[in-house]
Design brief:
This protein folds into two domains: 170 residues, Alpha-Beta Complex (Aspartate Aminotransferase, domain 1), CATH 3.90.1150; 238 residues, Type I PLP-dependent aspartate aminotransferase-like (Major domain) (Aspartate Aminotransferase, domain 2), CATH 3.40.640.10. It is 40% helix and 16% strand.
Length: 415
């Protein structure tokens, strides 16, 4: 309890819910980033010390690191069922996405100036599309249904003679919905339009076969699958037209200038290979834990909505919107309890607004600001899930108790 300290001395006593403190840490924000696998660290270490040569150098030091980069490229290509010459290393998903959108529209400017994307893309896509519009490129942003799914027929209808590129993410980072990428890719193939997918959230979690997915470009980022930050990769199908984003050197076959980040490249490839080996068993384990968390919370918390598709979703993603709470408050209390999660709202100017993804799937206003995402990982256990269920139910009850007349409001929403 705290007593009001206003000048009038009203004597009002306010109960502030803070939640219990605990001595454990539960990390459920793997969609934001993952810890580097110890085996990945070991693979990287030699290239941070004794194997430090520049891969462009012709002497032995350079040849050693060039061999490591080539081996990493081969491994990434195998994981994607691509050719090594179709793999380009970048600084991450944002650079890969920018490279495709800017590079394709520049290369094909004489053939058309129209790009198609979706309303729930990462800002690395949407903000780049905004920039392209300022440069005279027309952008069509397709809506999604209440599960966050794109209808391939909407893509077909949006394609015109001016369309040069379609970019649809493989799975959404916030709500976990997996898109029908192969079907969308077939539509693009039939229309003769290049197709890119942002697979940053799916690499390492879902099997990726660039031919089966019918994609011409695919982006991924190392730190999402237990690799290092600051390194990514881009698949670009052989012979498709695109121009480089960075200029100044002949690296990456004249497609991406700059001395290669050899430790990062080795780490990314090692992490992707390890993830591919563990993928099936780990996905099954995470799905069981994911559903345990969903079932536990929805059974304990009234007016709690699962965001995204109920089954066509990432194995580790649990996105919820809860009526009667502010997501930011819930996150702060969970953090005090040792639980790391993420929100579905962006804080600006002191007011919480639902994210563009939550708005796109039309979550009701009374629940939209109470959006929260739990994303599980290799270290997540059933005991942790059970603890989070209990903690989250307690947090929601505590926050709702601070809302005047919330019980009446809850009955009105349920009626």
């Amino acid at each position: 309890m705290a007593e009001c300290d206003c000048p009038d001395g009203c004597g009002l006593r306010i109960e502030v819910y803070q939640g219990p403190r605990i001595d454990q840490e539960i990390y459920l924000d793997h969609a934001a980033t993952t810890p580097v696998d110890p085996a990945v660290v070991q693979a990287m270490l030699p290239f941070l010390s004794e194997r430090f040569g520049n891969p462009s150098s012709v002497h032995g030091f350079g040849r050693a690191t060039r061999a490591a980069v080539d081996a990493a490229r081969d491994l990434v290509a195998r994981c994607l069922h691509a050719r090594p010459e179709e793999i380009y290393f970048t600084s991450g998903g944002t650079e890969s996405n920018n490279t495709v959108l800017l590079g394709v529209t520049e290369a094909l400017r004489e053939h058309g100036c129209h790009v198609i994307t979706s309303a729930i893309e990462h800002h690395a896509i949407l903000d780049t599309c905004d920039y392209l519009q300022s440069r005279g490129v027309r952008t069509t942003v397709l809506p999604v249904d209440e599960y966050g799914l794109i209808d391939p027929e909407d893509v077909r209808r949006a394609i015109t003679n001016e369309t040069v590129l379609v970019s649809i993410m493989h799975a959404n980072n916030e709500i976990g919905t997996i898109q029908p990428i192969a079907e969308i890719g077939r539509v693009c193939r039939e229309a003769g339009v290049l197709f890119h997918t942002d697979a940053v959230q799916t690499a390492g979690s879902l099997a990726l076969d660039v031919d089966a997915l019918n994609v011409d470009f695919l982006s991924l980022s190392g730190h999402k699958f237990y690799g290092p930050k600051g390194v990514g990769a881009l698949f670009a199908r052989r012979d498709v037209p695109w121009r480089p984003l960075l200029h100044g050197g002949g690296q990456e076959r004249h497609r991406r200038a700059g001395t290669e980040n050899v430790p990062g490249i080795v780490g990314l490839a090692t992490a992707l290979g390890l993830a591919a080996e563990k993928m099936t068993g780990e996905a099954e384990r995470l799905i069981r834990l994911r559903d345990r968390l969903i079932d536990g919370i929805t059974a304990r918390v009234d007016q709690c909505r699962l965001n995204g598709h109920p089954s066509q979703r990432l194995p580790n993603n649990v996105s919820l919107s809860v009526a009667g709470v502010e997501g930011e408050s819930g996150l702060l209390i969970l953090d005090m309890m040792g639980i790391a999660a993420a929100g579905g709202a962006a804080c600006s100017s002191g007011s919480l607004e639902p994210s563009h993804v939550i708005q796109a799937i039309r979550v009701p206003p009374e629940a939209a600001r109470g959006s929260i995402r739990f994303s599980l990982g290799r270290g997540t256990t059933a005991d942790q899930i059970d603890f989070v269920v209990d903690a989250f139910a307690e947090v929601v009850a505590g926050l709702r108790s601070l809302v005047p007349n919330y019980a009446e409001t809850l009955r009105a929403l349920a009626s």
